[in-house]
Structures are given as C-alpha cells and as structure tokens.
What does this fold into?
Amino acid sequence: HADGIAVQGSRVTIKQNIIHSCTQAVYPNSFDYGPNAVSICDDVTICNNLIYQTRAIPHMNAINCDIETGGRSSMKRLKIYNNTIAGVDQYGINVGDRGHGGARLEGLEIFNNIVVDCGSYSSSGNISVSFKGPAPDPKINHNLIVSHRQKKPGYKFQGAARSQAQMKALGFEQHGKENYPIDAIFSKYDYQAPDNNYALPAGSPAIGMGLNPGGLCSHDLKGAPRPAEGPWDAGCFNYRPG
It folds into this structure.
C-alpha cells in the first residue's frame, strides 16, 4: 500500500509531477476517525501530472479521492484537470464516498484529462464518481478516454458502468472524446513500457479540446507555456511543432 502523494487537509495543490510504480499515485483522503469526527479535505487541486504504471506494480490507482469516514467529512471544490494517466490496473480517476452518507462533495470538477487503458482489476477503470450524500453537481467534461488494450466502459457513475455517450445523456461530457487510435494521441505508447513518450503529436485529438485551465496550469509538465488564450489542450503536455 505504497502511496505516491497522500493528502490530509485543505488548500493543497499537486501539480507537474511524474508519478509511477506505487499503489496510489495521488491520494486525497478523509480517513475514518469515528462517527462524530470532523475530517476536512477541501480545496484540493490536482493538475498537470503524468501518472503511469510499469509492469511491476499491480493494483494501482492513479488519482484516488476517497471519503472513508462516517463522520462529518468534506471534500469540497476538488479540481482534477490536465492530467495524463496511462495503464493503471484499477482506476484512473476515482472520487467516492465510502462513508454513511452526508459527505460534502460540492464543487467537484474533472476536466481536460487524458485517461488511457485503466482497469485491469476493476469492472470500469477510467473515471469513476460515486457519492452517497447530497448530489454534488459535478462538472465532468472535456476528458479524452481511450481503451486501447483494456476494453472497459469509460466511466462508472453512481455505481453503474457507463459509456461516454451515456454520460452525455446524463448531462456530462458534452465535449468529451473517446477511443481514438492510440498512435494519434501520444508520440509513443507501448502499453506500460518505461520508455513511453506521452507528448502530443501533430493532429492529436487532445489538441484544442480542453477548457481554460486557469492560472495554476499556465505551463505544461516540461515548462512550456500553455496559451494565454484558447484553444487549450487536454493532458499534461502542450503540442509544440518541432
């Protein structure tokens, strides 16, 4: 159970990291301190990270945002955007309330992420969102979902596996994309190989498909400036000709 970056507490930004070879790469968590405990993990932003799995580490989650307490728990204004996630065995992005209801998840935003080949050990492994408390009205949009080797439904929402088309019918992912040829998305991708290149080639469907990522994501993972004005790319890299 080796975690990469674990978070307990509020007002934390995790950006521009390369994380691999661990059980959970980024792990904001509201732990169980008992039925009357107050556990708050608000205003956490996770952006511009590259997360992938080598062959040596099974059962890996990439971004696992977990409310485990039955007390007064809160994970408000959680933002997950412009991450590139590839080849993890469980969930690429998971946000879930495993408590007893009433957890506060308002303001959840998941956008501009590229999530590829997740879910060897789970029924639906790319993006999963579930909650038992009041509906958080999440913003889930502009994500690029690809099942290249792992043929899985793109989403698990409120406990049910769903395609991106089904998510659109529910009002999410109106500008999402899915299931493009893998060599159109990355410069080099060989499932779970250590020498992959997750940069965007010319013509990648991730180019220009994103929302404005805001000031926290003004540069890509290699330090290249993201455009001050759109269009904005999905993932942790910008495309730069040459």
About this structure: The chain has a mean pLDDT of 87. The two ends are 41 Å apart (CA to CA). The first strand starts at residue 3 and ends at 7. The first helix runs from residue 164 to 169.
